[in-house]
Amino acid sequence: MSRTATAHGDAFDTLLGALAAEPGGGARAYERLRERLLALLRVYVPAEADALADVVLDRLARRIAEGVAIDDVRAYALGIARLVVKEARAREMRQRDAAADPTLVPDADDDDRETRDAALAALRACLAQIDAAARALILAYYGADGGARIRERQRLADACGSTLNALRNRALRLRVRIEECLKRRLGDGGLA
Amino acid sequence: MTDANAPTDDTLRRWLLQQLTDADAQALDARLMHDDALAERLREAETDLIDDAARGALGADDAEAFRRYRLVDPQTRERLVAARAFARLREEEGGQEVVRRPHRRRLAWLAAAAIAAAAIVLPMRWTSPPATLPTYVLLAQTARGAEAALTLPAPQTAVRLQVEVADATRRYALAIETNGRRTPLARDLVPREADGYAYVEARVEAALLGQGRRRVVLIAASGEVERDWTVVVGAAGE
């Protein structure tokens, strides 16, 4: 389990204690809370989600250590997260104003042909490392478009004798594995 | 909360693109803190969004929101490169194993070429599997000025356009014009060749295509319009 950057000692232990009654105990509940905060923050401030999740947990731990009575830890954490998102967006606005550049968002199509060819070659290599069934699954699962996407995935789940949720989890794990492989092959900074 | 209340994939996409009302977004925020499955569905919605962006399959508003809200994240930019590789692989071989049938795609083009003299616009609907898109072929000799307006049925979700180009060594962009307003459809398209014909291909969302009279514009890398077609989408009697 990873502690937040600053939620040390008593505050952190108090937070674990506040989560101890949840299924799996305090440590597991802490990890789940962090995962949820990460998912939430990725919606609004994806570039800072990881760091801001730690900020939220740090503030939460300090409130609890200060003796603030909290009935629902997740709801309280959500309140802190919303505040942190507002702060991050205000900071982002100030930075944009300071830079006098309204087009800080990078172009979606800024990678060149060479990069694309390298990425394709890397993807082929990464897919070659997994078994044929997994390869077929990931290409089919992420292969359909638009409205056909849901039908195709349901069809795959039926064909696998699996539920859609179980298939989704498997596909997501495979996708993460492939993307991590791709990133390694292209080298740090090679993708961005 | 029951499954019946679960957000749709479209809602999750609009959440990611900051297109929900504050009230709807806050309801999802709260749900995410307590719903184990929602985080996974959200991750999937994000992946699908990136895949669609990689395929050039987002409408203009969604594409702008994607650039504004998602591409600020280096991790998303990394994932976009990966998604583009998946898209290219799918085009070249991968997705065709299950989702597509390459020989049918090739046949679509060859069939168009074979009857080019009489062609206006050729709908090539694959009968199976269901993931395929209706494909329409725009030939050089059916470009504007050569024929009357071409007719296309209004698509359910999207169509695939195969557009003949003059020079297989150049790159092209496609755009659609409605009442003089031009909307990019795809760019940096690399021509393919089949039996002496060169063509580029792009998927076009139904929302972008709309209904009524439109002008499909083929633009060379130099910026010049090489050719254009007038099409009527959703014509009577379709």
TrEMBL record, chain A:
It comes from Tahibacter soli. The lineage of its organism: Bacteria, Pseudomonadati, Pseudomonadota, Gammaproteobacteria, Lysobacterales. This is Uncharacterized protein.
From TrEMBL, chain B:
Keywords: Membrane, Transmembrane, Transmembrane helix. The keyword Membrane applies. The chain crosses the membrane at residues 107-126. It comes from the Bacteria. This is Anti-sigma-K factor RskA. It comes from Tahibacter soli. The lineage of its organism: Bacteria, Pseudomonadati, Pseudomonadota, Gammaproteobacteria, Lysobacterales.
